[in-house]
C-alpha cells in the first residue's frame, strides 16, 4: 500500500516559481519567460535545460525542490567513504544514498538520467518506496563528495546518517519464500486429495497420491512451519507457553496422524488441511509486517549531531568525522552549530541553547573557561572549544546509557500480549482434555481413543486467534497510517489499546510557536516607509524569527539599504539614508523588558529600534496547538492525564486547568527526570503512553509502554518511538486510541465466537464420534470466518474515522 | 488410468517450475521494489525539445 503524506497544495498564481512552485517574492529571476523564486532554482533549471533534461518539468507540475547548496566534500574522508561505498573495483564504484526529497515521477526521470549530467556516472537506479538512489560511477574521476554535492545541487540532499546502516535483515525474504512454498504445498496437496473428496477408489493411485501428499506435507510443516517449531522450542526452554504451542500441537498431531494413515495404508490423511493452515498462518504473519520504509523508529542522539567537525590542529583547520574526536581536541564551532561533546570554552562568547537537550527555552550565556555540554546549540560568533569528555560519557548521552536503551526488546519482553496470555490457559486446558479423553476411552474402546485425542487437538487449535490477530491489527496500522499516524508494529498497536495514562510533553507537543499572526507591541504606529524599511532589513536575515516576520510582511516593498551589519546572536542594523533600523534582542535595541510575567525568552520576540529609539517588539508567542483544549477535555474523562515539561511552570499557565492537580504535572524536568516520572507511574501499575516531540523526551518515549513522537514538518526527524504522529493530527489522538481499543475488542469477540465453534466440535470430539476429517475441515472454515470478521470490522470502523475527519474539515 | 501417471508427473513438473521461478525471483530481489518499475515504464521516451 502506498502511503501518501498530505501536502499543502502549491499556490499557483501570478508569479510562482517554474522550478519549485513556491510563490516568488520581490526578487524574481526571469529566464526564458519563466520566473524563478531564487538563484538556486534558476540554476537547476539552467543545468537541466542545457543537458536536454527539461522533460523533468513535463512529468509533473513544478516538480523541483529548491537546492540548499550544501557541500558534501567531507564524504571523501576515508571514514565516510568506506562506510558508504558498497562495492568498488578498478573500473567503477557503487554507492547508495537516501534522498528524502524524492516525491514524484519527475524525480525518477531526473535521477535515473543522472549520467547525462556527468559522464563519470555510469548508471543510476532508484527505489521510489525507500527513496534510495544507487549510483554506479567512476570513482577515479569523480569523487564521492563531488557526486553527493552534484545530487544535492539538484535539490535532492542526501541524508547521511551518523551510524553505519544496519545490514538489511533477511527475515522478510525468508517469510516470502516460506509463504510461497506453503501455498504450493497446500494447493498441490488439495489436488492429490481430490480422489478422496470424490470418493474414488483406486488402490495404486491412492497410494501414490498419499506418498506425494506426505512429501508435500513434510515440506510445509518442517520448512514453512519451521518458525513455529523453533519459537515454541525457544519459549519452552524459558518455561513459557505462548499461543504458538497449541497451534504447533494441532499441526504436528494432524501431520503425525496423516503420516501414520498414509504409511500404514489405512487412510488418506488430511495433509491438505494441515498445509492449508500453515499457509493461512503465514499470510497472517506477512500481513502484520507492515513497514514504513521512509520512517525511522530507531533514531538516537547521533542523528541530531553534525557529521563532521572542524578540528584545529597546529593552527590549521581540518574537517574530521564526529567519531574521530578525542579528549583534548580543539574544535571550531560556528553560529548555530551543535556542540558534539562536553567541552570547555576556550575563545569567544556564546549564548547556548540547550532547549534541544533539556526542553528549557531560555538561552544561557557562556564565557571563556566555562564548561558546555554536548547537544547545546551555539549562537554567536565562531568559538573555539576543547573537548573534556568523550562523546559516550557526555552529560547528554548518559541518557542513552540507561538500561532501557541497551535492551532493544525491553517493551515486548515485559509485555504479555492477549494472545499469549490466552495461549497459556488454552494449552493447559487442551492438554488436560486430550489426556482425560485418551485415558477414558483407552480401556473402553481402544479403536476410539486415538480418534478422540487427535480430534480434540486439531479442532481446538486456536488458529482462529492466530488469524484474527494479525489481520485485525494489521488493518489497524494500515488505517492509522492513512491519517498520518504511523505505528511501528502490531505489538505497539496492541499496547496502545491497553493504555490508561497519558503523559504529555508541553513545548512543541501541546504548544506551538505561533506561525501566522504575531502580536505587535509597539509604542507608536509605524509609517509606511518605516514598515518597508523593516521588511527590507528582515529580508537580509536568515534567523528563524526574521523569516516569520518576513512572511507576515510579504506585501511590503523592498527599499535599497546603504549600510548593513549583522551582529551574530544579537541582531541586525541597516542604514536607509533617512532611517536607521535595528532589530534583535532587547538589549541590542535598548528596549527594556517590562513584563517579567509571561516573559519567555528573547527567542520569541523580535525587538525593533528606529533611529536609535526603541519602538517595541513583534512577538510570536507559544500558543496551544489548535484543537488541543477539546482533546484534553475529552481525554481526561477516559484517561489519567499528566503534563511534564522542561520549562518553568509560569509558561504553562494556559494549560494548567486541564490537569487535575500538582500530582499530575511536573516542571523543569531534565530528560532523565522525565524518564523517571514515567517509571514512577509504571510502578503504580499504570500503562503509560508518552506523547512528546523532542530529543529531551527520548528517555520518556522509550520508557513508556507506548511512546508517540509528534512531528510537524518533517516526518524524518523524530526521536526513537513506537509511533509517529503528524502534529496536525494530534487533536484526533483520542479517536485513534479508541480505534486501537476497538481492534482489541474485535479480536476478543471473534475469539469468543471461535470458542463456540470449538466447544461444539469438542463436545463431539470427546465422545469420540467426531471423525478427524471433519475436524480438519472445520478448522479452515473457522480461520476464514475469523479473517472475514477482522477485515470487515476494522474497515468499517476505519471508514468511520475517515468520514469523521472529512466532516470536521467541512465544519 | 495409466494416463494419470503421466498427467500427475506433468502437473507436478509444471508446479515445481513455478516454485523454482518464485524462489529465484525472491533470491534476486525482484519483489523488493514494486513501485519504481511501475513508474519507470510510464516514462516518456526521449524528446529533445527544450522548454
Q: What does this molecule look like?
A:
The complex is a heterodimer of chains A (811) and B (51). Chain A is α+β, with helices and mostly antiparallel strands and 811 residues long. Chain A is built from 25 helices and 30 strands. Chain A has five domains: 40-160, Alpha-Beta Plaits (2-Layer Sandwich); 171-289, no CATH class; 302-395, Calcium-transporting ATPase, cytoplasmic transduction domain A, CATH 2.70.150; 481-511 and 624-739, Rossmann fold; 519-620, Calcium-transporting ATPase, cytoplasmic domain N (3-Layer(aba) Sandwich), CATH 3.40.1110. In chain A, a hairpin with a 4-residue loop joins strand 5 (121-127) and strand 6 (132-137). Chain B has one domain (2-40). In chain B, 0% of the residues are buried. The model of chain B has no long low-confidence stretch (mean pLDDT 80). The A-B interface holds A 2, 32, 34, 49, 52, 54-55, 57-59, 105, 108-109, 112, 126-130, 173, 176-177, 180-181, 184, 187-188, 191, 202, 205, 208-209, 212 and B 1, 4-5, 8, 11-12, 15, 18-19, 22-23, 26-27, 31-36, 39-40, 42-44, 47-51.
Keywords:
heterodimer; A: 811 residues; alpha+beta; Alpha-Beta Plaits; Calcium-transporting ATPase, cytoplasmic transduction domain A; 5 domains; seven-stranded mixed β-sheet; six-stranded antiparallel β-sheet; 25 helices; elongated; B: 51 residues; mainly alpha
Amino acid at each position: 500500500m502506498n502511503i501518501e503524506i498530505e501536502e499543502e497544495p502549491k499556490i499557483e498564481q501570478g508569479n510562482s516559481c517554474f522550478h519549485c512552485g513556491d510563490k516568488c517574492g520581490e526578487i524574481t529571476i526571469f529566464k526564458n519567460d519563466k520566473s524563478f523564486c531564487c538563484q538556486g532554482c534558476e540554476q537547476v533549471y539552467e543545468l537541466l535545460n542545457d543537458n536536454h533534461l527539461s522533460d523533468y518539468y513535463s512529468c509533473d507540475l513544478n516538480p523541483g525542490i529548491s537546492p540548499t547548496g550544501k557541500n558534501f566534500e567531507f564524504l571523501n574522508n576515508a571514514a565516510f567513504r568506506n562506510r558508504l561505498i558498497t562495492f568498488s573495483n578498478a573500473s567503477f564504484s557503487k554507492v547508495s544514498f537516501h534522498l528524502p526529497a524524492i516525491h514524484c515521477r519527475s524525480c525518477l526521470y531526473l535521477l535515473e538520467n543522472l549520467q547525462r549530467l556527468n559522464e563519470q556516472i555510469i548508471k543510476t537506479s532508484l527505489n521510489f518506496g525507500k527513496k534510495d538512489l544507487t549510483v554506479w560511477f567512476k570513482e577515479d574521476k569523480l569523487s564521492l563528495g563531488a557526486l553527493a554535492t552534484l545530487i544535492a545541487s539538484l535539490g535532492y540532499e542526501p541524508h547521511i546518517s551518523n551510524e553505519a546502516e544496519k545490514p538489511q535483515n533477511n527475515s522478510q525474504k525468508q517469510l516470502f519464500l516460506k509463504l510461497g512454498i506453503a501455498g504450493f504445498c497446500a494447493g498441490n496437496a488439495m489436488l492429490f486429495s481430490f480422489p478422496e473428496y470424490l470418493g474414488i477408489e483406486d488402490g495404486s493411485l491412492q497410494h501414490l497420491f498419499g506418498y506425494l501428499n506426505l512429501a508435500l506435507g513434510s515440506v510445509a510443516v518442517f520448512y514453512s512451519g519451521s518458525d513455529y517449531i523453533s519459537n515454541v522450542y525457544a519459549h519452552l526452554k524459558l518455561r513459557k507457553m505462548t499461543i504458538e504451542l497449541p497451534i504447533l500441537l494441532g499441526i504436528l498431531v494432524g501431520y503425525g496422524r496423516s503420516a501414520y494413515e498414509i504409511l500404514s495404508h489405512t487412510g488418506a490423511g488430511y495433509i491438505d488441511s494441515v498445509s492449508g493452515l500453515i499457509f493461512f498462518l503465514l499470510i497472517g504473519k506477512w500481513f502484520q509486517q507492515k513497514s514504513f520504509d521512509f520512517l525511522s523508529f530507531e533514531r538516537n542522539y547521533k542523528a541530531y549531531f553534525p557529521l563532521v567537525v572542524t578540528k584545529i590542529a597546529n593552527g590549521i583547520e581540518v574537517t574530521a568525522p564526529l567519531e574521530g574526536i578525542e579528549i583534548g581536541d580543539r574544535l571550531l564551532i560556528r553560529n548555530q552549530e551543535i556542540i558534539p561533546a562536553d567541552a570547555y570554552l576556550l575563545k569567544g562568547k556564546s549564548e547556548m541553547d540547550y532547549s534541544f537537550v533539556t526542553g528549557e527555552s531560555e538561552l544561557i550565556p557562556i564565557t571563556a573557561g566555562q564548561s558546555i555540554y554536548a547537544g547545546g546549540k551555539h549562537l554567536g560568533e565562531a568559538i573555539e572549544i576543547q573537548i573534556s569528555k568523550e562523546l559516550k560519557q557526555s552529560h547528554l548521552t548518559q541518557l542513552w546509557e540507561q538500561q532501557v536503551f541497551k535492551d532493544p526488546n525491553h517493551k515486548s519482553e515485559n509485555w504479555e500480549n492477549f494472545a499469549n496470555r490466552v495461549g497459556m490457559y488454552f494449552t493447559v486446558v487442551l492438554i488436560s482434555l486430550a489426556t482425560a479423553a485418551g485415558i477414558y476411552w483407552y480401556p473402553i474402546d481402544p479403536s476410539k481413543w486415538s480418534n478422540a485425542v487427535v480430534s480434540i487437538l486439531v479442532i481446538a487449535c486456536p488458529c482462529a486467534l492466530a488469524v484474527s490477530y494479525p489481520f485485525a491489527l494489521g488493518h489497524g496500522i494500515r488505517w492509522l497510517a492513512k491519517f498520518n499516524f504511523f505505528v511501528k508494529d502490531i505489538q505497539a498497536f496492541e499496547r496502545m489499546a491497553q493504555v490508561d495514562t497519558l503523559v504529555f510533553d508541553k513545548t512543541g507537543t501541546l504548544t506551538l510557536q505561533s506561525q501566522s499572526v504575531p502580536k505587535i507591541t509597539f509604542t507608536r504606529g509605524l509609517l509606511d516607509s518605516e514598515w518597508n524599511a523593516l521588511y527590507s532589513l528582515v529580508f537580509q536575515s536568515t534567523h528563524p524569527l526574521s523569516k516569520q516576520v518576513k512572511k507576515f510582511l510579504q506585501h511590503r516593498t523592498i527599499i535599497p539599504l546603504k549600510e548593513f551589519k549583522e551582529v551574530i546572536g544579537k541582531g541586525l542594523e541597516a542604514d536607509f539614508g533617512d532611517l536607521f533600523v535595528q532589530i534583535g534582542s532587547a538589549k541590542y535595541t535598548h528596549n527594556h523588558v517590562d513584563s517579567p510575567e509571561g516573559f519567555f525568552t528573547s527567542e520569541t520576540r523580535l525587538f525593533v529600534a528606529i533611529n536609535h529609539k526603541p519602538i517595541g517588539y513583534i512577538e510570536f508567542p507559544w500558543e496551544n496547538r489548535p484543537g488541543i483544549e477539546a482533546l484534553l477535555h475529552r481525554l481526561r474523562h477516559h484517561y489519567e492525564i499528566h503534563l511534564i515539561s522542561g520549562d518553568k511552570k509560569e509558561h504553562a499557565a494556559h494549560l494548567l486547568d486541564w490537569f487535575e492537580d500538582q500530582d499530575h504535572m511536573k516542571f523543569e524536568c531534565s530528560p532523565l527526570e522525565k524518564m523517571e516520572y514515567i517509571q514512577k507511574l509504571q510502578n503504580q501499575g499504570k500503562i503509560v503512553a508518552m506523547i512528546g516531540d523532542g530529543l529531551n523526551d527520548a528517555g520518556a518515549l522509550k520508557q513508556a509502554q507506548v511512546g508517540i513522537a509528534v512531528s510537524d514538518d518533517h516526518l524524518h526527524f523524530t526521536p526513537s518511538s513506537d509511533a509517529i504522529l503528524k502534529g496536525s493530527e494530534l487533536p484526533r489522538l483520542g479517536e485513534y486510541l479508541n480505534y486501537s481499543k476497538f481492534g482489541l475488542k474485535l479480536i476478543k469477540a471473534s475469539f469468543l465466537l471461535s470458542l463456540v465453534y470449538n466447544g461444539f466440535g469438542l463436545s463431539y470430539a470427546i465422545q469420540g464420534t467426531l471423525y478427524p476429517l471433519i475436524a480438519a475441515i472445520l478448522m479452515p472454515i473457522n480461520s476464514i470466518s475469523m479473517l472475514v470478521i477482522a477485515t470487515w470490522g476494522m474497515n468499517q470502523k476505519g471508514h468511520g474515522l475517515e468520514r469523521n475527519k472529512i466532516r470536521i474539515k467541512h465544519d | 488410468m495409466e494416463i494419470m501417471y503421466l498427467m500427475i508427473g506433468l502437473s507436478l513438473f509444471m508446479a515445481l517450475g513455478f516454485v523454482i521461478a518464485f524462489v529465484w525471483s525472491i533470491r534476486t530481489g525482484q519483489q523488493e521494489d514494486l513501485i519504481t518499475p511501475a513508474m519507470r515504464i510510464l516514462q516518456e521516451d526521449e524528446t529533445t525539445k527544450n522548454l
